[in-house]
Design brief:
Length: 201
């Protein structure tokens, strides 16, 4: 199966130990799929109506994603690369380098904290093809520091303000799910600032 890769999508790769990795990651809010303490339900149990999420449930979800074609799974990195439609030698080299960082317990390439590193060494290997989320707008209308929308020439449109999910320029290429309430907080904060500016005017 070949993928239609483009610059708006990416692959997330993990091995058979993904659930134990999730337990180590100390994730919070929307990204927490494993309870951090005995008897405590993960946040996603409330989002998905399951209490609590567990390894069996997540494996069932993963099986469904693979069946849908949004993920591929293989017993070797070379085979995984073929299913992904990417150069096998480049993927093998990338995975080998990432495993070196895991062995050293230090991410010298990107600065990821050691407890968030995980080896990609235990088959089967899974690659999930990901794109944008509907939780927030990663693009949006470009605004100035007064939250006014900008024309193509960079000048502000007077009397108009853009906040909430229509406002652009706040995120990079991805919404960081480890920060609970980030999108809501952005909307409330910039909405307050616009309201305050209008009241003072």
């Amino acid at each position: 199966m070949k993928s239609n890769m483009n610059r708006h999508t990416w692959w997330q790769i993990f091995d058979a130990n993904y659930y134990s990795d999730c337990e180590r990651f100390q994730a919070a809010r929307c990204s927490r799929v494993a309870a951090p303490e005995e008897g405590q339900a993960p946040m996603n149990s409330y989002l998905h109506g399951t209490s609590p999420l567990n390894a069996e449930y997540l494996q069932g979800q993963l099986d469904g994603v693979i069946s849908s074609g949004a993920a591929v799974q293989a017993d070797s990195i070379d085979e995984l690369a073929e299913l992904m439609g990417v150069p096998a030698d480049a993927l093998v080299e990338t995975v080998a380098r990432y495993n070196e960082l895991w062995d050293a317990q230090e991410d010298a390439d990107f600065g990821k904290k050691a407890f968030r590193l995980s080896a990609i060494a235990q088959p089967p290997y899974t690659a999930v093809h990901l794109a944008g989320w509907l939780l927030c707008t990663l693009g949006g209308v470009t605004v100035n520091t007064s939250l006014q929308p900008l024309r193509e020439d960079g000048t502000a449109i007077e009397g108009v303000y853009v906040v909430g999910n229509d406002q652009g320029g706040f995120y990079g290429a991805v919404y960081p799910e480890t920060f609970g309430g980030l999108n809501t907080g952005k909307g409330m904060t910039f909405g307050y600032l616009v309201g305050k500016a209008l009241a003072e005017a």
